[in-house]
């Protein structure tokens, strides 16, 4: 068997039930969930994740608050040493609900907001009044002292709104702003996506925003090319690389395991196979860990740090190891060079472990990229402080 680390972060669709009808839903969620794992089975999954060393589990749906045992699931994860966070539409997030989730051990809530114009958000999410309810949910999180993340799905109709949405997230006191790049699956398979040119331009704007606003994390999701964009702009920013099947997996409501929510290729089912066996033995996971990529991705000098979005390649070509067609970068004629090796001092490793799990890999990638660009082969605590100063504007960005 080929083993590659452990699933640091797991996205778990614990229900397919939902009170909204979002146009882009990859799960095609409906009013009620069907055939979902029982509470006991959820406990068993959590115990297996803990044994695998999982650091964070993202409880999502559908709408996870529609599960009557949600508090028990949150508590079980926290009790087993896993950081539970939640992805929600926010419409059911009153103060009492958020307070109960916090008491159970929830560490953060990500709420979807796709526009500052209520009618646009509600048209996309399918229910009138859901914009105000989502904003009220964000406010409830902040009143209760639960870190709130605002996340937006990028579309042609809200493309110009992204800077304003980032400002809104900062003004609300959100911990992070996540911009999700659409993968056309589920109900979204026939949606019109942004153009490759807009994709590239928006990543550049997002990279700049990460550098300009150190008080809030600004992150691109399902956009592994961010590593290249940041490097081209001289920014040692975290991001890039597809973690699917490498340090990340997804579990659906019925217990099926896939590399990510947008890549619907089943590696196994937790009902009949231990998670450790799926993680270590599934062919698709092994192929994603040592990929033989096709097209431009296969000859790209950024292939080690980017890899392209495997879900987007599959959605548009049927080949999850094919090239990511939304990337405009054309590799040079020289073979890609292997990245220089860097090592970490024990003190630096200790400091890295203090970084929250959900950004640790991104931070590690950024620090190692900064070190390589400047000829460092050893990462020390002092170098980490230098990178932090650089990223917050405390140092000149010229090489």
CATH topology of the largest domain: TIM Barrel
Total domain modules: 2
Radius of gyration: 20 Å
Which parts are unreliable, with pLDDT below 50 for 5 consecutive residues or more? 333-337, 392-399
The strand order across the widest sheet is 7-6-5-4-3-2-1-8-9-10
Q: What is the 3D shape?
A: globular
Structural class: alpha/beta
> What is the arithmetic mean of pLDDT?
88
Determine and state the CATH class of the largest domain. Answer: Alpha Beta
**What summary fits the major beta sheet?**
10 strands, mixed
Fourth-tier CATH superfamily name of the largest domain: Aldolase class I
Please estimate the helix content. 25-40%
Number of strands: 12
Q: Helix and strand string, N-terminal first?
A: EHEHEHEHHEHEHEHEEEHHHHEHHEH
Please name the CATH architecture of the largest domain: Alpha-Beta Barrel
Beta-strand content estimate = 5-15%
What is the overall number of helices? 15
Straight-line N-to-C gap = 43 Å
């Amino acid at each position: 068997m080929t083993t590659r680390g452990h699933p640091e972060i797991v996205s778990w669709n614990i229900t397919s039930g939902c009170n909204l009808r979002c146009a882009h839903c990859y799960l095609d969620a409906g009013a009620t969930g069907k055939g979902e794992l029982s509470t006991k089975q959820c406990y068993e999954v959590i115990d297996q994740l803990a044994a695998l060393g999982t650091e964070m589990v993202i409880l999502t749906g559908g709408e996870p608050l529609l599960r009557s045992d949600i508090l028990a699931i949150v508590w079980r994860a926290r009790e087993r040493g896993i950081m539970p966070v939640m992805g929600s539409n926010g419409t059911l997030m009153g103060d009492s609900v958020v307070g109960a989730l916090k008491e159970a051990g929830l560490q953060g809530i990500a709420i979807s907001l796709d526009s500052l114009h209520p009618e646009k958000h509600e048209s996309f999410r399918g229910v009138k009044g859901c914009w105000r309810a989502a904003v009220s949910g964000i406010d409830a999180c902040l009143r209760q002292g639960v870190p709130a993340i605002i996340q937006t799905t990028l579309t042609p109709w809200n493309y110009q709104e992204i800077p304003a949405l980032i400002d809104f997230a900062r003004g609300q006191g959100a911990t992070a702003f996540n911009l999700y790049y659409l993968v056309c699956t589920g109900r979204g398979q026939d949606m019109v996506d942004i153009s490759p040119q807009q994709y590239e331009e928006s990543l550049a704007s997002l990279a700049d925003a990460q550098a300009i606003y150190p008080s809030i994390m600004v992150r691109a999701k399902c956009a592994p090319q961010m590593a290249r964009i940041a490097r081209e702009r001289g920014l040692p920013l975290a991001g890039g690389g597809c973690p699917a099947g490498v340090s990340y997996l997804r579990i659906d409501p019925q217990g099926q395991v896939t590399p990510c929510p947008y890549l619907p290729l089943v590696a196994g089912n937790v009902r009949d196979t231990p998670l450790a066996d799926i993680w270590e033995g599934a062919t698709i996971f092994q192929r994603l860990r040592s990929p033989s990529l096709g097209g431009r991705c296969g000859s790209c000098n950024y292939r080690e740090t980017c890899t392209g979005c495997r879900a987007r390649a599959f959605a548009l070509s049927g080949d999850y190891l094919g090239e990511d067609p939304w990337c405009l970068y054309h590799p040079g004629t020289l073979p890609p060079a292997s990245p220089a090796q860097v090592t970490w001092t024990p003190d630096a490793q200790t400091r890295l472990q203090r970084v929250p799990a959900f950004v640790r890999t991104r931070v590690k990638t950024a620090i190692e990229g900064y070190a390589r660009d400047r000829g460092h082969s050893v990462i020390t605590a002092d170098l980490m402080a230098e990178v932090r100063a650089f990223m917050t504007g405390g140092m000149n960005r010229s090489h």
